[in-house]
Amino acid sequence: MILRFLEILTWRDLIDVLAVAIIIYNLLLLIRGTRAVQMVLGLLFIGLVYYTAVLVELPTLQRILENLLIVLPFAVIVLFQQEIRRALADFGRNPLWGLAKQQKVVASFGEIVLAATTLSTRRIGALIVIERLHGLRNYIENGIEIDAVVSYDLLINLFQPDTPLHDGAVIIQDDRIAAGGCFLPLTANPELSKEYGTRHRAALGITEETDAVAVVVSEETGTISLAYNGELTPDLDSNSLRSALYRYLVTDLYPQERAR
Q: Which CATH number fits domain 105-255: 3.40.1700.10, 3.90.226.10, 3.30.70.1290, 3.30.70.100?
């Protein structure tokens, strides 16, 4: 049967399957880390209930779901309008954005480390969250969109005490500052020391719910800490901070880098 299948398979079929796979892959990347994931699961559940009603012959339930499925395309457009706009915009910039996307934050290590150490010497509090694999779009959307290349000057200005965004978190995607003034979930860990304030609790909270890396500068002591996987590594200097960033954002994500 496999040989028969290979005989009738043409190059057009391969292109067709590849195109569908690329579209599905990019759609999954688009909704990853957003509330759209729960919506998709809900739609899949409705579809499963419908086909179950057809199989076991439940006419009333089947009729209700059939009427619901008629308006489903319009509901999808309304529910996913933000994701659809974002996908079209990204596709216009780069049709193969899903395949070409690479981890670019490595180039920003120097800017992040220099900004953190400068803020530390000035005793200015800061919280910088760097996205890994789990999307942070939900948290980005509750902040102020910036969409600028990561730079030392911009990070320093964002956390100045007299600026509107200094109390919130800055979120970095790839090599760009996606948003500032973002609100993050606070950890509920009862074992956390009382000496840690809201910034440290927010850093732990976001790393408990996602795989992000968070750099925290204490306003009271000027110490630099790094949060990952719900754990806090305190008292970092510029070298140890750079090493930790490289470990969590490069080595752990791309094991082949260890051999280089």
A: 3.40.1700.10
